[in-house]
Amino acid sequence: MTADVSVQFTYTVTLREISDGLKLQMRHSPVGRWGYRVLWVVGIFLGLVIAINVAAKGIDSPALGVLRFTVTVIVIMIACRWLMALGLLGYARHLGEHRVTVDQSGIGTVSERHTNHTGWEFYGRCVEGRRVFVLLTPDVWGAGVLILPKRGLSAPQDTERMRELLAAALIDQHSVRAARKKGSAQPEEGSSGAEVVRGA
C-alpha cells in the first residue's frame, strides 16, 4: 500500500446509519457480546417457562404475565437504542455535513462546526456492516465509536481501499500495543488484537 492512499467520505448521517452503528457496536464489543449471550439464555428460559405453563394450565395461566413482561422489556430495549440514535443524530446534524479523510496517519474530520484528527492508536477494531463502517476503541465496552456511512464514499472502488487501509492500520496498532505489553503481564484472553469484521 502506497503512502498517498486515502479515502474520502462526504455525508450527513441518517438515523438508520446511526442505529446500525450502535447495533454493531453492541454486537462486537466484549461486553456487548456477553450481554447478547445473557439475553439469549434468559429469553430461552422465559420461553420455556411460558410454554410449559400454557401447556399445563391453559391459555389463562399466569405465564401470560411473564410473556407480557418479556415483550415489555424487549420493546424498552429497542426503544432505548432508537432514543440513543436520535440523540446522536441531533448532535451530528448540529455539526452539519461531514468530510472525512482516512489515510495511514489516521482519520481527519471536518464539519461546519468542528475539526478533528484522530490517530489509529485510538481504535482497536472495525466492523463493516451493509451500510456503514464502524470503528471501535479497544476497551471492553467499545465506548469510542465512529460511524462512517458507505454512501459517503466518492467512488465504488473506495470500499475496497477502505478495507485495505483499515486492515493495515489496525494490524500496525496491534503490533505497537503488543510491543508495549512485552515484558509486562500477559494480556487477558480475548482482550487484545486488531479486529476487522466484514459482513456483520
List the helices and strands and how they pair.
Elements: E1 6-11, H1 15-28, H2 30-57, H3 63-95, E2 98-103, E3 106-110, E4 115-118, E5 125-128, E6 132-136, E7 145-149, H4 158-181, E8 195-197
Parallel strand pairs: 5-8
Antiparallel strand pairs: 1-2, 2-3, 3-4, 5-6, 6-7
Helix pairs in contact: 1-2, 1-3, 2-3
How many beta-strand segments? 8
Number of helical segments with 4 or more residues? 4
Strand content: 15-25%
Task: Tell the overall outline.
Answer: elongated
Major sheet attributes: 4 strands, antiparallel
Structural class: alpha+beta
Order of helices and strands: EHHHEEEEEEHE
Could you name the ranges where pLDDT drops below 50 across 5 or more consecutive residues? Answer: 185-193
The Cα radius of gyration reads 21 Å
Helical residue percent? 40-55%
Overall mean pLDDT stands at 82
Relevant terms:
single chain; 200 residues; alpha+beta; 4-stranded antiparallel beta sheet; 4-stranded mixed beta sheet; 8 strands; elongated
